[in-house]
Amino acid sequence: MPKTQPNLFAFPGVDALAPALRSYIIQSQNAGVSRHGVFKVAVSGGSLPKTLAAALLAPPTGPDDVVDFSKWQIFFADERAVPLDHADSNYALLKAELLDKIPDADGRPTVHPIDTAHLDDIQELADQYEKTLVSSFASRDSVRLPLFDLLLLGCGPDGHTCSLFPGHPLLRESDAWVAPIEDSPKDPPRRITLTLPVVTHAVRIAFVATGGGKKDIMKQIFDSNNGLPCALVNEAAGDRVSWFVDEPAVEGVNFPRRAYL
Ligand SMILES: O=C1O[C@H](COP(=O)(O)O)[C@@H](O)[C@H](O)[C@H]1O
């Protein structure tokens, strides 16, 4: 069977990107709720939460344009081994940008942060977060991998996603669902992350990349077999992957854009 290609949706700027991302997330939400009554989504940190807020906090444009946060179970695609109110915490970032601003009428999501009792032992921190997934997705004996309805991911300027970094041995992890990393090349060095098999198993995977600072790495990601973590997700998940980017991020990228309909 021929390999499928990721979808590349490019917009003039975040103002145009945000409504399309919103519509894509709502479709994923509705599909998840139809499948199992809830929407299981994992989110990244970095620049993503701000764009997510622009998409999800906008007023609805009609009866089908409803974000029902009461059905959301939010997990973290990666997290830094810091307290939940630390400036480096992905949870703190999501809380400040999005969670604290959700209007009461949109419902409250169930949020699954890391257990900060284990910050001194990141293997334990990762194991405990894996147990959180196990209790939400059924036991490891019954499912080989957790099936997220949607992953909302960022792409670092080096091609990393989650806390999966280029050339790092963690890219070969094939057993754990959640793994610790102690030597992240980007600060802070101690983190936990979903592993590549979990990422590529998701029903849908959306990357959001904006700004001219991403254009060089975007050329590499869409150019060749280079083993960059974002490229590995593209290769393994094909058309289950959608990229929401602005034009500056894909200037010079030689890959067909799709219109978002
Ligand atoms: O360290 C991280 O960086 C990536 C990318 O961040 P961005 O600011 O370039 O969008 C992010 O996706 C990840 O969650 C975070 O821990």
TrEMBL record:
It catalyses: 6-phospho-D-glucono-1,5-lactone + H2O = 6-phospho-D-gluconate + H(+). Keywords: Hydrolase. Pfam families: Glucosamine_iso (PF01182). One of its GO terms (biological process) is pentose-phosphate shunt. Signal peptide: none annotated. The keyword Hydrolase applies. Residues 15-241 form the Glucosamine/galactosamine-6-phosphate isomerase domain. Its EC number is 3.1.1.31. Pathway: Carbohydrate degradation; pentose phosphate pathway; D-ribulose 5-phosphate from D-glucose 6-phosphate (oxidative stage): step 2/3. One of its GO terms (molecular function) is 6-phosphogluconolactonase activity. It is an enzyme of class 3 (hydrolase). Hydrolysis of 6-phosphogluconolactone to 6-phosphogluconate. NCBIfam families: pgl. Belongs to the glucosamine/galactosamine-6-phosphate isomerase family. 6-phosphogluconolactonase subfamily. This is 6-phosphogluconolactonase. It comes from Hapsidospora chrysogenum (strain ATCC 11550 / CBS 779.69 / DSM 880 / IAM 14645 / JCM 23072 / IMI 49137). The lineage of its organism: Eukaryota, Fungi, Dikarya, Ascomycota, Pezizomycotina.
